[in-house]
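User: Some background: our group keeps a shared notebook of sequences we're curious about, and every so often someone picks one and asks for a predicted structure to add to the entry. Today it's my turn. The entry only has the sequence so far, pasted here. Could you supply the structure so I can complete it?
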Amino acid sequence: MEPGDDAAYRDRLHPQLRYEYNNLYHGRRAKRSIEGPQACTQARRMNPVIVRGRDFVAVKQQFRYYLAAPGKKAGSLWTQWIVFPVGKRYFISMDRVDSVNDSDGLFLRIDMPGHIRHRQGDTFSEIYLSYLALTNDDGGYRHGRIPAAAFFEDFPPDERFHYLRDRGRIPPRFIRAYRLRDPKSGKSGPWLAGMTLEPSVVYEAWCHQRGYVCMIEEFGGRPIRAGQSFSAAFIVGYFDSIEQMHNVYDDHKGYTALEVGPTGWKLTGHVKGPRQ
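Assistant: Of course. Here's the predicted structure to add to the notebook entry:
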């Protein structure tokens, strides 16, 4: 996807590439699909590659987009690596797009760490956004912590808790997490967190209620030319405290890519210096 609307050619767009906005689900920001379809619902069957190492298992998945907007090419390649280290409660992953198109702001939309289905907060007690103070409206909440009650009523993504890199400030960490709650006992458990290891790659991030808590994140959003790629690296898993999340994040911060082979894996694409 990229910023801008598709009004000039909407009548020629495949239905799966049409993007609606000015609504509760997508808010007021105009965006348009460059290629598709949406892999998570339309890819159907994939042929994963599994790599087994001495102390990890990794899975590689790929999908080549076969639909394109008028004036664009189909054929960009999405690649995902997921590494499961032995003895950890989290995995390390990477999403990368190798583009066959030029764009002034191509981005990939993902769910991070995932959406939250609930009934009046029965499955989670609170949400933590490390960047909350940099959103358009923090709701008056402090230290990144938002109670479940803030999500009892629907609201659009750009009404509050909305992050946009173009506002000019990048947080030191980019962590999105929610604390699990047992629906029967009401007891709180561990946190499920999604960490984008290089904060500056995040273009936009939502955390809003639309029948469930929608945790969409978009990364990239910078000029790209055909033949180039962009990527982001993540850690996703369970943590007992916010402090524990911070410690793991800081041990892996700054990387945007992941390489995997039979003898091991490593994070790559480290970003140094000022982040813009």
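Suggested note for the entry: The chain has one domain: 2-268. The chain has two helices and 21 strands.
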